[in-house]
Design a protein that fits this description.
- The complex is a heterodimer of chains A (432) and B (286).
- By secondary structure, chain A is mostly helical.
- In chain A, strand 2 and strand 3 form a beta hairpin.
- In chain A, helix 3 crosses helix 9.
- The longest helix of chain A has 31 residues.
- Chain A starts with 6 loop residues before the first helix and ends with a helix.
- In chain B, helix 6 crosses helix 7 and helix 7 packs parallel to helix 8.
- Chain B has a 6-stranded mixed sheet with strand order 6-7-8-3-9-10, with helices on both faces.
- In chain B, a hairpin with a 2-residue loop joins strand 4 and strand 5.
- Classes of the chains: A mainly alpha (432), B alpha/beta (286).
- Chains A and B meet through helix 7, helix 8 and helix 11 of A and helix 4 and helix 5 of B.
C-alpha cells in the first residue's frame, strides 16, 4: 500500500502519523491538567515566530522556521505562566490575551510578507490551516528528531509528570521542583505544537492534542494506558487522514485527521464501557424498570394483605383505578414481574405467585421499618415519612434493614399501625 | 580515676546534654511569621513552638489562616517576614522528616489512577529520578493501605472510592513518607463515622510511636477528645498550649468573637468532656 503512494503522499503519511502520536501523548497530560486551551494559545503564539524567521532568513527552510515558531511559542507560554503567577488575571483570560495578541501580530506580519515581491511564493499562509502536502524530507527529519526528544523526556519524567498532573502541592512537599517540571512539560507541549504547525495549521492543532486524549480517557482508568491509547488513536487518525486525502483529490489532510479523531471521540463518548453515555442511559432504564415493577408488586401485596386473600386475581381495570395508570403504563410495570415469575397474568387480571408474595413482603418490610426509623429516631411526624420510605424501599439492603430493625428493638407495627412482616418467609410454605 | 574513665564520663555528660537539648527542640518553631496574599494579610506576626510527640489541633474561624499556616510551614507559600524551623533546622533540610496530607478537595479524584498508585506517590522522593517504583515500593505502599484498612481496594480507581476512603488513601500516602512530623489539612472533613474512628486510631498510633501530628480541625466539639495540644488562630495567634489548660471557653471566645452558636456547642461539649473525665478520675480514686 505504502509503496503505491507517491513520494509526497508518503511524506504526508509519515508526518501525520508522527504528529498524531506525539499530540496524543502530550495531549493526555494537557487534558488532565485542564490546559487544553494552552495548546491552542501556543499554536497561535508561534505564528509571528514563523513570520519573523522568514523575514530574517529570507527563505522558507525548515530549521529556522521551526526555531522561530519554537521561540515565539515559548515566549507565549512563559507569558501565560508569568501572568497567572504575578497578576490577578486568571489562567483562562491570560490564555485568551496571549493567543489574540500574538496571533494579531502574526497576521500583520503575514500580510506584510505577502505584499513583498517574493512573498506570494513564501507559502507561509499554509501555516494557518496547514498543508501536509508541503512537507519535504527535511521537515520530516526535524519532526522526527524533535519527536524523539519529546518521547524521551516523557519516559524519563513520567512519574513526576503524573504527580504534577494529579497533586502538584504534594509534589512540592516532597521536595520535587514542581515549577521546573511544569515549565518542562509546557516546553514539550510547545515542541509538539510546532511540529504540527505545517501539517495541521495554527487553527486546528489543538484538536490533535485534546481529541485523542479525551477519547482515550473514556476507555481506561490508568494513566499509562491512557497515554499509549491516546498516542495510538492520534497515530491512527493521522494514517486514516493522510490516506483519505491521498486517494480523494482536493481533500485537505489536516482537517480530515481532525474529523477522524473526532469520530473516534464521539464513538468513545457514547459506547465506552462504564463511562459511555449509552451504557449509563441503559443502566438508568434498568433501574427505572425495576422500581416500576417493585411498586406494582408492593401494591399487589398490599391488596392481598388488606383483603387477606392472596389467590384472588386483581382485574386490570381495578389496578388501573387504584394506581391511576393507563393500561399501557400498567403493562409496562407488569412486564418485569411477569418476566421474573413474580406475578401471573390470567385473562384480564394479575395474581401474585408465591415468589412474588415473598418478594412483596420484603419490600413492605423495608418500607415500614424505614418509616419507624424516621419517626422514632429523626422524630418526623408520621404523615411525613411515607414519601421518603417510598424511595428507600428500593435501595435498602436486606442486611441494613435487619440491623435497623434490631437497633429499633424489633418494632411490630409501622407509624401508621400496619404490621411489619418478619425477616424472610420460605416461599414454599407461604404458597400453601 | 583513670583518664579513660574521665573521658568517658565527659562524653556521657555531653551526650546527655545533647539529648536534653534535643528533647527541648520543638518539632516546629515559627517565628514572627507574616503571610499575605497580594496586599491582604492572612497571618500576622505568628510566634509558635509546637512540642514533639503530640497530637496538635489548629483551630479557628473560616479565613483565620489555618491552611496558610500549614502551607507556610511546608514552604508552599512564601512569607513576608519570619521563619520556620522543623526540629531546629530549616524546612529544606528537614523535608524528608515531614509528611503532608492536603485537603481532599484539592485534587481531581477523577484522575485515571488507582489507590495504590496514589499511595506510591508518597515514595517518589525516595525512589529518585528516572526510576520506576519497584516491587519493594509497591509492597510498602500496600502495607500503608493495610494500616488504613484499604488493602482490598488497592487497585480500585480513585473516583470509585467514597469520600472517607479517599481521605484514607491520602493518609496512607503520608504514612508511606514515613515522617516524624505530619501536617494534615482537615483530615476529618466530610468523612463518615467509621472513617473518623479509623483516622483517630491511626493518629493516636502515630503519636504513641513518637510522631508529631499537626492537623487543621474544624469540629470544636471533638478537639478536647481527640487532641493533646491546641493552637487557636484568628489571623493572629490567640493561644497555644495543652488542651487541658488552653482550650477554655474564655480563649474560644477570644478566637471566635461573637459567633455564639458555635461557641455554646463547643463549650457544652467541653464541659461534658471535663465532667466525664473528673467522674472517671473520681471512680479511679476510690
Amino acid at each position: 500500500m505504502i509503496l503505491e503512494l507517491s513520494f509526497t503522499a508518503r511524506n504526508v503519511l509519515i508526518g501525520a502519523t508522527l504528529l498524531g502520536a506525539l499530540g496524543g501523548t502530550l495531549g493526555s497530560f494537557a487534558l488532565l491538567r485542564r490546559q487544553s486551551l494552552l495548546g491552542d494559545a501556543l499554536a497561535h503564539a508561534a505564528l509571528p515566530g514563523v513570520c519573523l524567521a522568514y523575514l530574517v532568513t529570507g527563505a522558507k527552510s525548515p530549521l529556522p522556521l521551526f526555531t522561530g515558531a519554537l521561540l515565539a511559542g515559548l515566549l507565549g507560554a512563559m507569558l501565560i505562566l508569568a501572568t497567572v503567577r504575578w497578576s490577578r488575571i486568571k489562567e483562562d483570560s491570560a490564555i485568551g490575551i496571549v493567543l489574540s495578541v500574538f496571533f494579531g501580530i502574526g497576521i500583520v506580519l503575514l500580510t506584510y510578507i505577502q505584499k513583498l515581491p517574493a512573498g506570494n511564493q513564501s507559502g507561509l499562509d499554509k501555516f494557518l490551516f496547514g498543508q501536509a502536502a508541503t512537507l519535504v524530507t527535511e521537515d520530516l527529519q526535524v519532526m522526527a528528531a524533535l519527536g524523539a526528544v519529546v518521547v524521551l523526556f516523557i519516559a524519563l519524567f513520567y512519574k513526576e509528570f503524573k504527580l504534577l498532573s494529579f497533586d502538584p502541592a504534594f509534589g512540592s512537599s516532597l521536595g520535587l521542583p514542581m515549577r521546573r517540571l511544569e515549565i518542562l512539560l509546557t516546553l514539550l507541549l510547545v515542541v509538539v505544537v510546532v511540529v504540527g504547525l505545517q501539517t495541521v495549521g495554527v487553527v486546528l492543532i489543538v484538536a490533535t492534542l485534546i481529541t485523542p486524549a479525551a477519547a482515550a480517557r473514556q476507555w481506561t482508568d490508568r494513566l499509562g494506558a491512557m497515554v499509549l491509547l491516546s498516542a495510538a488513536i492520534g497515530a491512527a487518525a493521522g494514517v486514516a487522514g493522510s490516506l483519505a486525502s491521498a486517494s480523494v483529490p482536493k481533500l485537505p489532510t489536516g482537517p480530515v485527521i481532525v474529523l477522524v479523531s473526532s469520530c473516534v471521540l464521539i464513538v468513545s463518548l457514547l459506547l465506552a464501557p462504564s463511562r459511555g453515555i449509552l451504557w449509563a442511559r441503559l443502566r438508568e432504564k434498568q433501574v427505572a424498570e425495576r422500581i416500576r415493577g417493585e411498586n406494582l408488586l408492593k401494591d399487589l401485596y398490599l391488596q392481598g394483605e388488606r383483603t387477606e386473600s392472596w389467590d384472588k386475581p386483581l382485574t386490570w381495570p381495578y389496578l388501573m383505578g387504584i394506581r391511576g395508570q393507563s393500561s399501557r403504563d400498567l403493562a409496562r410495570s407488569a412486564r418485569p414481574l411477569l418476566g421474573r415469575g413474580l406475578a401471573e397474568r390470567t385473562d384480564d387480571a394479575l395474581r401474585l405467585t408465591a415468589d412474588g408474595r415473598a418478594k412483596g413482603q420484603q419490600l413492605v418490610r423495608k418500607h415500614r421499618i424505614w418509616e419507624v426509623y424516621l419517626s422514632r429516631r429523626l422524630e418526623l411526624p408520621s404523615d411525613h415519612v411515607h414519601r421518603d420510605a417510598e424511595a428507600m424501599e428500593h435501595t435498602l439492603s436486606e442486611a441494613a434493614v435487619s440491623d435497623l430493625e434490631q437497633a429499633l428493638g424489633f418494632p411490630k407495627v409501622d407509624p401508621h399501625g400496619s404490621p411489619i412482616p418478619p425477616r424472610r418467609v420460605d416461599p414454599l410454605r407461604t404458597s400453601a | 580515676m583513670p583518664i579513660s574513665q574521665i573521658v568517658n564520663l565527659a562524653a556521657r555528660e555531653e551526650e546527655e546534654a545533647q539529648a536534653q537539648a534535643e528533647a527541648q527542640t520543638p518539632a516546629i518553631e515559627v517565628h514572627d511569621l507574616t503571610v499575605a496574599y497580594r496586599t491582604q494579610p492572612v497571618l500576622w506576626d505568628v510566634d509558635l513552638a509546637l512540642p514533639e510527640g503530640k497530637l496538635i489541633a489548629i483551630v479557628g474561624p473560616n479565613g483565620a489562616g489555618k491552611s496558610t499556616l500549614l502551607k507556610a510551614i511546608l514552604g508552599l507559600v512564601t512569607p513576608v517576614t519570619g521563619w520556620v524551623q522543623i526540629f531546629g533546622e530549616t524546612y529544606a533540610k528537614r523535608r524528608s522528616w515531614v509528611g503532608y496530607v492536603p485537603q481532599r478537595e484539592s485534587v481531581d479524584w477523577d484522575f485515571p489512577t488507582s489507590a495504590l498508585d496514589v499511595v506510591t506517590m508518597g515514595l517518589y522522593g525516595q525512589i529518585g529520578w528516572f526510576r520506576r517504583p519497584s516491587k519493594h515500593h509497591r509492597e510498602t505502599a500496600l502495607d500503608c493501605l493495610e494500616k488504613v484498612g484499604m488493602r482490598d481496594l488497592a487497585h480500585r480507581q480513585i473516583s470509585q472510592l467514597s469520600g472517607g476512603q479517599q481521605q484514607r488513601v491520602f493518609l496512607a500516602r503520608a504514612l508511606a513518607q514515613d515522617a516524624k512530623l505530619y501536617l494534615m489539612d482537615e483530615p476529618f472533613a466530610g468523612v463518615d463515622a467509621t472513617t473518623e474512628r479509623a483516622i483517630l486510631t491511626l493518629l493516636k498510633e502515630l503519636r504513641n510511636t513518637g510522631r508529631t501530628v499537626v492537623a487543621v480541625h474544624h469540629d470544636l466539639q471533638t478537639v478536647a477528645e481527640y487532641f493533646d495540644y491546641v493552637v487557636l488562630l484568628n489571623m493572629r495567634l490567640v493561644a497555644s498550649g495543652p488542651v487541658s489548660t488552653t482550650f477554655t471557653a474564655d480563649i474560644l471566645q477570644r478566637t471566635y468573637g461573637g459567633r455564639l452558636t458555635v461557641l455554646t456547642q463547643a463549650t457544652e461539649a467541653l464541659l461534658q468532656q471535663r465532667s466525664l473525665e473528673s467522674a472517671r478520675e473520681e471512680g479511679e480514686g476510690e
